[in-house]
Amino acid sequence: MSKIIVVGATSAIAHETAKNFAKENAEFFLVGRNPEKLETVRNDLCVRGAKNAEVYVLDLNELNRHQEMFDAALKVLGGLDAIIISHGTLGDQAKSEASVDDTLREFSTNALSVISLLTIVANYMEKQRYGTIAVVSSVAGDRGRGSNYVYGSAKATVTAFLQGLRNRLAKSGVTVLTIKPGVIDTPMTAHLKKGLLTAQPSKVGLDIYNAMKRGKDVIYTPWFWRYIMLIIKNIPEPIFKKLSL
Amino acid sequence: MSLLNNFGHYQSWGRYPKETPKEAVPLYWRSELPDLAAFKESLLAYGYGRSYGDSCLNADGVLLDSSLLRRFIAFDRENGIIRCEAGVQLADVLEVIVPEGWFVPVSPGTKFVSVAGAVANDVHGKNHYSAGTFGCHVTQFELLRSDGQRFICSPTQNVELFRATIGGLGLTGLILWVEFKLKKIPSPFILAENIRFSSLDEYFEVAAESDKNFVYTVSWTDCITSGKEMGRGIYTRGNFYNPGVKATPPLKKGLKLLAPFDMPSFLLNPMSMYSFNLALYYKQVRKRSQKITHYNPFFYPLDSVVDWNRMYGLPGFLQYQFVVPDNDNHYAIKEIYRRITASGQGSFLAVLKNFGPIKSPGMLSFPSEGVTLALDFAFKGQKTLDLLNDLDSVVRDAGGRFYPAKDARMSPEDFQESYPNWQEFAKYVDPHFSSSFWRRVTEPLTQTEQHEKLHLVGSRNGTK
Predict the structure, then answer these.
(1) Are residues A138 and A13 in contact, defined by beta-carbon separation less than 8 angstroms?
(2) CB proximity B31 to A under 8 Å
(3) pLDDT single digits (tens) B273-309
């Protein structure tokens, strides 16, 4: 996997994942909103062994620029082995509840923009009959919960979309990896209280890297979230609706 | 890193004194730093808390967690110069540079220190005689002051701030990134020799002969045994192994990699200190032996045991490291050993080493030509403090000084006398920055207040 697009490259998880590929001298096309942060990530990956890394500034909510970005990536990389999609916002549940605009914006960032990208990439990889699509969803998408369902439902959309995509692209040899992190210690969760289950992005990055190399379908990272969510998913609705999780 | 920093319990390595900051602020991006002047409390950067005492603590103040600034900025592979953010660990640097044939110019006994911490403490290593301190190899760094001003400091730019920040314990401001010169190495292996010496006099003989031909030298010594064999131990000396014209051989081909220095397994057995030191001394079966070892166990034997400091339990432990000029037939160091062996309070590990004459640019730099001894004592309350006060007087009389990075209790008088340019340094301390250490050694309590404070903390931990 030597030609990689990283969308949301300034996210802690994306950067940590990319570090592993940098060690193997991969080439990167880094996409994000903030040019200074992108440059910082670019320099780090190059020191760590990346053969080359170009940056591209884009707010993923500008859906009409996705094709342009993708074309630019192909031009720079001269091909495509993998794409890692890791952009997103945690949002503020209370704020979203009070505002339709806010809710729809969060949904656009976390679901619609991802779907738009996937549509473009899937067609390209289907044609070349190989490639890896790795997308960061979340355990929050496994079941809607009162405390964060605006975020959770967007991730649930992404998870289901990826599932269908996986089914379609299996015939073309393209791997679709759904990544479901639990609570990770990153700037996104900086305002939340850290608990015993909070994991480090470096561990998550390694898990994602290994899963991509092994062609996995769905990973929970850290691994124990698979079992936590199994329990959560199976709580009967009449009971679950009364809990405050 | 929340796990490394104990879920937000920002302690020091010795876990003594137990002080908490009012707030710890993670710094994620150099391009998005908080306004330092907006904080009401004093500030201090915190990396990975590898300082033993209170030089990395800021009780009731604010700690700026720079462990998130952990990215590389540039690496000149040809000339061996690397630039990285303040929170990059030496371990991270080694991971990147060793495969390219480079090594860090100076390294302390753990690689889990941040580069900014290495600068702020002006760390030294086994190669002090030939290479000086870390500060001697720093080409430049960027310092952010609380008024928002940024300074690029180097031996030729903002020179006073450069000299104040090296060894400046984080008090001059927030270091954002550090650039330093690396050392070219012929392989990642060390050709090492272990020599058993049976007394302090013999140590000094071996040391004198070794410093000329070996870059890396250090010794582990026994501070339990008194009498004729007082100060016996094992002297280790080595150089990077040069395989010559042939390509670096892999471990299997011909070169027998003998067991690495397995200090940790001994250290952490709850054996009595006497038998521990006995075993250590006689482990070195032949008087002199040679082996080729990978750099990791040679430089970082204790790093393989994560969180070894916890073995001392909740009361924590006190590290005690000083340097004394070596003259007068090694009187001072022998007197120190006499008093420790007489006290019955041993240290699991005592590290004895000679410092060379290379001067650091740092104003508060600790190493000076002479002999240094580093010890840890389980904190047993007043009797430990009494012993250390007793040893202080020997160090003081010999014109020596203590290492701030390890210190939790040196007196303000000793600090001010043994670091005579501390007032010159104080001019460069940022008005918004402070540390528990700095307040302790420059704003002294009365003797009684200080003893009370330390004694109270000791008994609260259940030690009597």
Answers:
(1) no
(2) yes
(3) 555 566 666 666 667 888 899 999 999 988 876 566 6
B1 interaction partners in chain A (CB closer than 8 Å): 185, 200
Shortest CA distance from A190: residue in chain B: B26
What DSSP string describes A30-74? EEES-HHHHHHHHHHHHHTT-SEEEEEE--TT-GGGHHHHHHHHH
Mutation site, A47, A51, A188, A191, interface B, largest B CB count within 10 A = A47
Q: Which residues lie closer than 8 Å to B50 by C-beta, 6 or more apart?
A: B13, B56, B110, B112, B113, B117
Contact B75 A185 (CB under 8 A): no
Q: Contacts of residue B82 in chain A, CB cutoff 8 Å? A: 47
B59: left (phi over 0), alpha (psi -120 to 50) or beta: beta
d(CA B406, CA B108): 12
CB contact under 8 A, B73 and A37: no
Radius of gyration, CA atoms only, chain B: 21
Q: Is B2 on the interface with A (CB under 8 A)?
A: yes
Task: Determine contact, residues A117/A7, Cβ cutoff 8 Å.
Answer: yes
Residue B250 has a pLDDT of: 41
pLDDT in tens, chain A (245 residues): 899 999 999 999 999 999 999 999 999 999 999 999 999 999 999 999 999 999 999 999 999 999 999 999 999 999 999 999 999 999 999 999 999 999 999 999 999 999 999 999 999 999 999 999 999 999 999 999 999 999 999 999 999 999 999 999 999 999 999 999 999 999 999 888 878 889 999 999 999 999 999 999 999 999 999 999 999 999 999 999 999 88
| pLDDT score recorded for residue B378 | 77
| Predicted-complex ipTM score | 0.94
Instruction: Say if residues B360 and B123 touch (Cβ distance below 8 Å).
Output: no
- For B:89-148, CB contacts with A below 8 A are 96
Contact A37 B29 (CB under 8 A): yes
Residues B345-368 have a mean pLDDT of: 91
Is the pLDDT score of B310 beyond 90?
no
- Please check whether residue A82 is in contact with residue A212, taking contact to mean a CB–CB distance below 8 angstroms: yes
Biggest distance spanned by C-alpha atoms of chain B: 66
Any idea how long chain B is? 464
Cα–Cα separations (whole angstroms), residue A86 to A188, B58, B297, B419? 12, 37, 38, 52
Question: pLDDT digit string (tens) for A194-203?
Answer: 788 899 999 9
Is A194 near chain B, with CB under 8 Å? yes
Instruction: Report CB contact under 8 Å: B73, A47.
Output: yes
The C-alpha atoms of residue B83 and residue B336 are separated, in whole angstroms, by 41
CA pair distance A242, A192, nearest whole angstrom = 23
Q: Do B31 and A40 count as a contact with CB atoms less than 8 A apart?
A: yes
Q: Strand B43-46: give its sheet, edge to edge.
A: B23-26, B62-65, B43-46
Chain B residues in contact with A37 by the CB 8 A cut-off are: 29, 31
A188 to chain B: closest CA residue: B28
Confidence band, pLDDT 50/70/90 cuts, at residue B329: confident
Question: Which residues of chain A neighbour B29 with C-beta distances below 8 Å?
Answer: 36-37, 40
Mutation choice for B interface testing from A13, A37, A43 by most B CBs within 10 A = A43
CA distance B322 to B119: 19
Q: What are the two backbone dihedrals, phi and then psi, of residue B137, each rounded to the nearest 5 degrees?
A: -115, 5
Residue of chain A whose alpha carbon sits nearest to that of B32: A37
Cβ–Cβ below 8 Å for A200 and B1: yes
**Which residues in chain B are closer than 8 Å to A48, comparing Cβ atoms?**
72, 96
B429 pLDDT exceeds 60? yes
